[in-house]
Write a structure and sequence with these properties.
single chain, 7-stranded parallel sheet, 3-stranded antiparallel sheet, alpha/beta
Length: 382
């Protein structure tokens, strides 16, 4: 059986639909494995609760919704976007639907994305978590293309982020890119001090090697690693990053889980990107000839989903969610319909054998084009 049965667990509104709860006990499906309902600090489940996953372990453990929300595209690198009021309205809708993990960074804008997140989300900080990132050097509101994770700079960026996010504590502070001029032990030590001061609760790193992860984790336990990961880019399976996360009890947060929107099927060789606010036109994988070739992969996802009542976006996200229970993708969007589509991913039941079938079908099609140009690739830590 192809498995198009729905599980309602992720979408029961435990407070809003009381009505005696009808004594329902729907079971977790494969996608929802190793999750539990999000709860407020008073122990009562929130309206619109989603399944929860735990990033990190021990004192570094961090409970978040099984799907997060990438805020970046609301102001940065994704062509045209709605006005601020519409963005805020959509972020509030995401909260209403149970999302508790929102992701931004200093470099997004730069600065404007953190400002938006602060304005839209700070009033909900007792219910949700807004994570941000340091590392890319920003001077006078502009990125320089250099990395700076020196202790003094981390402290300054932390204070600036606290102000823009309108909060007194950052739930998780990622090093956005590895700084070859600052030993990772110094970075981890600075974060440890910020934790002791109550300004940071958890920390993570982005696009780093297993060796760097181990060094950093020894100094100050990591909660999550963030790297690009999707059906068209599975490097973290090959280079040991996922293995070291599993070994050390560190969570994993895939960014661009839909390959910058491509796996959703709405981007093709005729798509025109805004050269003033979209980096995709600079990426080899998003050149017309590469997109023309890679559309065959999207077709595989669409065919797989068509038999199960799923869209290609839901197939891509569902595949990630079933890989490991400590994986929490952070798709972003500016459209309510896409938000709802992403969250419906948690409704579907697909067997491990079917996911393997999908992997094999995709693996037969070579991916055309590198994910980054040469300059951006230099910033990746492996």
């Amino acid at each position: 059986m192809s498995g198009n049965k729905f599980s309602r667990r992720g979408f029961i509104k435990t407070l809003g639909l009381t009505m005696g709860a009808m004594a329902l006990e729907p079971t977790y499906n494969k996608v929802q494995a190793a999750t539990k309902l999000v709860e407020q600090k008073d122990g009562k489940p929130m309206s619109g609760s989603l399944p929860v996953r735990t990033l990190g372990s021990g004192k570094a453990a961090f409970d978040v919704s099984a799907l997060g929300f990438g805020v970046m595209g609301m102001t940065y690198n994704r062509s045209q976007h709605p006005d601020k009021k519409q963005c805020i309205r959509l972020l509030h809708e995401a909260i209403d639907r149970g999302i508790t993990l929102f992701d931004t960074a200093i470099i997004y804008g730069p600065l404007t994305n953190e400002i938006l997140a602060g304005e839209a989300l700070s009033e909900f900080r007792r219910k949700i978590n807004v994570t941000t990132k340091f590392g890319h050097e920003v001077i006078n509101g502009k990125g320089t293309g250099r990395q700076d994770s020196s202790p003094a700079t981390i402290r300054r960026y932390c204070e600036d982020s606290l102000r823009r996010l309108n909060t007194d504590c950052i739930p998780m502070f990622y090093q956005h890119r590895f700084d070859p001029n600052t030993p990772i032990e110094d970075v981890a030590g600075t974060i440890s001090d910020l934790m002791k001061e109550g300004k940071v609760l958890h920390w993570g790193m982005c696009e780093v090697s297993p060796e760097t992860i181990r060094k950093a984790h020894t100094e100050c336990p990591l909660t999550a690693i963030q790297s690009e990961y999707h059906l068209m880019h599975r490097l973290v399976e090959e280079n040991g990053v996922l293995d070291v996360c599993k070994d050390l009890g560190i969570g994993f947060v895939p960014y661009s889980p839909l390959n910058r929107g491509f796996l959703g099927g709405c981007i093709n060789e005729y798509t025109v990107f805004d050269s003033n606010n979209d980096n995709r036109h600079t990426l080899p994988r998003f050149q017309p000839e590469a997109m023309r070739a890679n559309t065959r992969i999207v077709n595989v996802l669409q065919n797989f989903g068509r038999e199960r009542g799923m869209t290609s976006s839901q197939v891509a996200l569902g595949w990630l969610l079933q890989k490991e229970p400590f994986i929490v993708p952070i798709p972003g969007t500016t459209k309510l319909s896409h938000l709802e589509e992403n969250l419906r991913t948690l409704d579907f039941e697909v067997s491990p054998e079917e996911w393997k079938e999908l992997e094999l079908a995709v693996a037969q099609i070579p991916v055309v084009g590198d994910r980054y140009n040469a300059e951006q690739q230099k910033q990746v830590g492996f």
